[in-house]
Design goal:
Helix content of chain B: 25-40%
Number of helices of chain A: 15
Oligomer: heterodimer
Strand content of chain B: 25-35%
Helix content of chain A: 25-40%
Largest interface: A-B, 38 and 45 residues
Structural class of chain A: alpha/beta
CATH architecture of chain B: 4-Layer Sandwich
Strand order of the largest sheet of chain B: 8-3-10-1-16-15-17
Strand content of chain A: 15-25%
Number of domains of chain A: 2
Shape of chain B: globular
Number of strands of chain A: 23
Number of domains of chain B: 1
Amino acid sequence: MNFLYPEYEIVRNYDKCISCRACERQCANEVHEFLADKNKMLCDDSKCVNCHRCCTLCPTHALKIVHSGNTYKTNANWSGKAINEIYKQADSGGVLLSSMGNPENYPVYFDKILLNASQVTNPSIDPLREPMETKVSLGAKPKKIERDKNGRLINNLPPQISLSMPMMFSAMSYGSISYNAHESLARAAKELGIVYNTGEGGLHEDFYKFGENTIVQVASGRFGVHPQYLNSGVAIEIKMGQGAKPGIGGHLPGTKILGDISRTRMIPEGTDAISPAPHHDIYSIEDLRQLVYSLKEATDYKKPVIVKIAAVHNVTAIASGIARSGADIIAIDGFRGGTGAAPTRIRDHVGIPIELALASVDKRLRDEGIRDNVSLVVCGSIRSSADIVKAVALGADCVYIGSAALIAMGCHLCRSCHSGKCNWGIATQFPELTKRLNPDIGYKRLVNLFGAWQHEIEEIMGGMGINSIESLKGNRLMLRGIGLNEKELEILGIKHAGE
Amino acid sequence: MQREGQIRIPSGCAISGIIDTSGKRMSGEQIIRSIAVMHDRSNGLGGGFAAYGIYPEYKDYYALHVFYDSSAAKKECEDFLERHFDIINLSKIPTRKIKEITDEPLIWRYFVTPLPTKLAESQLDEREFTAKCVFRVNTRIQDAYVFSSGKNMGVFKAVGFPEDVGRFYRLEDYEGWCFTAHGRYPTNTPGWWGGAHPFALLDYSVVHNGEISSYDANRRAIEMYGYKCTLQTDTEVITYIVDYLHRKKGLTLNEIAATIAAPFWQTIERMKPEEREAHEYLRTMFSGQLITGPFSIIVGFENGIMALNDRLKLRSMVVGEKDSRVYISSEESAIRIIEPNLDKVWSPKGGQPVIVHLTGGEAQ
């Protein structure tokens, strides 16, 4: 007996339904069924993940998905969700799994921060008439300038990542997402003048040509890591942690390790790809320094090294250590960051909001005088251009964007990536599903989204009278809190609205 | 009411400057007449002057000009100065009682040189030692404020219209080879003399008209390098940026202009490779020192001045030349009033620095 009543209900308008069976073909979860003798479509709500594939593809808009509305006896302590999760675990004996970012009702600080604009004492700047600069450069800055014997400045900058806008696609491995999704990201990065990130699954041989727009990741499983791989991108990222599952490794089931994915990851077909929770050669900060320099040695000091960490309680101390480890860039992933699969309890209860982590880390590195040692990249989760402007004004050099990019390609945030049956062809490896994402369209939608956000950033900056993103960075006077308490304002380093 | 430094006060302004490149000294009378023309660009809540070459008899000593709100602060400050410096001369700064200027603090002047033992102990060079001591007084000693600390130069400022401030300080009694002036239009009442401009550190002085939109980005960047922005004004942060880039990093004035009022990337892309590389380097290396939003500034330093507009030229600034004199002002009228027959007059483009050095040998 299954104790769980379906959470969502598929409502079919039979006046509109023409029994074309598109919904049946589109649903990998086999929700829809055609009763030939009655010439009628039926659906099994219990299998529905609410991904909206059928609703979107239905030619007559005969389908919609609503809350089933079935409720347990009202209880302020025992929510329906809590009860259902117990039923699931009592049934399976397993750890609860979830995907994408933390959906729980924690404060979203970006939504409690307001932006400034110019009035009277200085003019706003019209981005349609004046140049508006969003170009950023990520990497360490040396302490001293040097000159040649003629007095000319010598370019003594360590390697940098140059971006047309303060946005990058965040790490999503080939394996967790499809070939077509990777191709879309790589092509979009190239057209936009930014970079995407391979994630920990290695780099498919077809995509080496996008090297100028690629960050290659080295994670605890070291899948697909070899000298050519390390030298193929513009930067190397050491993944120490991920916002969705701090302290936890990764697990890509053997069923997804097929063909190209097995070859790219350099592991046998059908074996589980298990990334250990820690790097087993990094048990402390001094070990991290060794890996940073090992990677620099392997790439002739031509690639900046990024260290990505999850935002946890002592993130400031960790960041301070990393800023002295030889790393060029620190990426911090907040507790709302997405994932292809994570234990639900970890995803929903571990880590801290990125806004607080960013504000604290930026301040700490400045207080210690080491902010120039590194650039700061933040993620988890950035949902709009306004979030980006707020992140930069809090002190970030750049943001990573994952979930929003997936949404642009069709993801409907059903949070079922771990099932491997993504109806949108993104988080799946089934050929009949992956072919649904056309990279010609997927890449274009990404270019559209980022282009639109860039325009919005320019508009917002222009309104503030700022015409270069450098002048927004760490410019916290441009921010005001709304409905925040003294402690929150202190941590964010901003004033309250009206002050 | 919060005073300057506890709150950020935007303000509009007038600026003016005169330099005689031959090093010949002139009285302070002219600069007062120049800034007085732009009376309506100030609102009586701040005015001041920087004068270079005015203390030839003490030119090897740092001239500290200090405001005190109490005699206890004066005692504490003087004790501190005595522990760190050899005080060659000290006196009240001469002033004239006029009805337009009221509520003056105690205003003192000290000619000093660092004590050799203290200097050696600090492992700093002489200028850094002096700058650190100035910061120390301004942040640690309540009611004491060092507002001028250069050699053979001095700042004179007060709450009032600039022409009244000039008369109050008897500026006509001083002779120098360069003067800059500032009239302030703050958008609320600071009522504190330290908040008036010019702002100065060591030989660097800045008068500024504008409201920069990059303020907090600049402030937070510069505070990482040991500066403390106690006044929360644009002028203060611009002075520290100039000091940092010029004195500490060794950039040339042209390089400083290319950093704080940087050409747009699209302009840099069209430059010749060598020039392009230098600009790309400066913008990347010193991205925290880029200043956006409207400004026109005159920076005074030990042997010249630099005038600079923001890169979009969102504030007026005019330059005039006559023989060995160069005039810079917010309005041409403020130049014409003292020199009607100019050889040349022009408006520099946004981001284009006008750098004027003394050519007549060492300043007198």
